[in-house]
Design goal:
With about 375 residues, the chain is mainly α. The chain contains 14 helices and no strands. The two termini are about 50 Å apart.
Length: about 375
């Protein structure tokens, strides 16, 4: 159409096309990728903050309990920070003692590894298989050892800086906590859904931590006892690693098992390594891979596939800290969707189908 009327219809048609569902989906996807890229770029800043918020959620019940006992708020915060510092010191002590013992036993392990390699090489040569260069040079090459030491020193400095930032954030978050809820209600209103969502998020994260801590302590205790009974070196360390890495869904138990089984192989031989492998399998299958997903999934209404995807995504975004915080962050996301009017229906995709909805679906024609 020629003339002014035709010119007027062009922007209208263009506006209608741009408001279509396909275009909105493309824009939403592009915005999501921008947000993900921003999270990756800001990881050095957001990672300590997320860890501090996580610790603050754990410490808030203690702070509030002490305040109800008329303990001054600064002293209550100091107690919580001191407890966290004691936990970090205990972890550091276990690692330092284990490192000192490893330094003493390392020559024995290297010698045993070379013997096992030579035996394996000889058996493979009987079948015409040559695995190439010996591992001996890689194990004892001075330059390689120096490179490992330099990387470890740089990593230790980075960890110390992160720990300092976490504690700094933790102090200020706990100091702000008594008045933060009132500030949010003043800004959003006492009936705002955001206030209710924040409170629900905190309660569910605390519930998850209680369940996960009980499961992880049971797993670590059984692994440590099993390693001690078998006579494997560093039994305390293996129990501790099983406890800590059990907070990482699915793959944490595997990561914890590999070094322990390797030490059992080098120290005591294949028989003890197989026995320790059996201990890990029994404990992790009966507790970690059966009870853990069922209990955590039902209590927090997260499906197994959502748990796995959250582990991959947050681990890729924030590294090892993201893997530890994957489920708390996903819980916060689900509750945020539930308390957002336009997005609440998507929260149902993150959890199992409840009995009421399943019955409705079965009765539908």
């Amino acid at each position: 159409m020629d003339g002014p009327a035709g010119l007027v219809t062009v922007p209208a048609r263009l506006s209608t096309a741009l408001s279509g569902p396909v275009v909105r989906g493309v824009v939403a996807t592009a915005a999501l990728f921008v947000i993900i890229a921003g999270l990756r770029a800001a990881a050095p800043i957001l990672m300590p903050l997320a860890l501090a918020i996580f610790l603050a959620a754990l410490g808030l019940p203690v702070v509030n309990g002490l305040r109800r006992l008329r303990v001054p708020t600064p002293l209550a915060i100091f107690v919580v920070v001191l407890l966290n510092a004691a936990a970090v010191a205990a972890v550091g002590g276990i690692l330092l003692v284990s490192a000192a013992e490893l330094r003493t036993e390392l020559p024995v392990y290297i010698s045993r590894a070379i013997e096992l390699e030579q035996a394996l090489r000889a058996k493979l040569l009987l079948y015409g298989v040559d695995i190439g260069t010996s591992l001996r040079a890689d194990l004892v090459e001075p330059q390689r050892v120096l490179d490992y030491a330099a990387r470890l020193a740089r990593k230790a400095t980075s960890i110390a800086t992160t720990v300092f930032l976490v504690f700094l954030y933790l102090i200020f978050i706990l100091a702000e906590s008594p008045t933060f809820a009132r500030k949010v209600k003043r800004v959003l209103g006492p009936d705002a859904r955001g206030v209710e969502g924040a409170e629900a998020t905190l309660k569910e994260i605390q519930r998850y931590l209680v369940l996960k801590t009980v499961i992880s302590m049971t797993t670590g205790t059984l692994i440590g006892i099993g390693a001690q009974v078998l006579g494997v070196d560093f039994a305390l360390l293996w129990g501790f690693l099983a406890f800590v890495l059990n907070f990482i869904p699915s793959v944490g138990s595997v990561i914890a098992a590999l070094p322990a089984i390797g030490v059992a192989l080098l120290q005591l031989g294949p028989g003890s390594a197989l026995a320790l492998t059996a201990v890990y399998l029994v404990v992790n299958v009966s507790i970690g891979n059966v009870a853990d997903p069922i209990i955590v999934g039902r209590q927090l209404r997260l499906s197994p596939i959502v748990i796995l995807v959250s582990l991959v995504f947050w681990g890729w975004t924030f590294g090892i800290v993201g893997a530890f915080l994957a489920l708390p962050l996903t819980i916060a996301l689900r509750i945020g969707l539930e308390h957002t009017t336009s997005l609440s229906r998507y929260a149902a995709l993150m959890g199992p189908l409840d009995a009421k909805s399943a019955a409705t679906d079965r009765s539908a024609p």
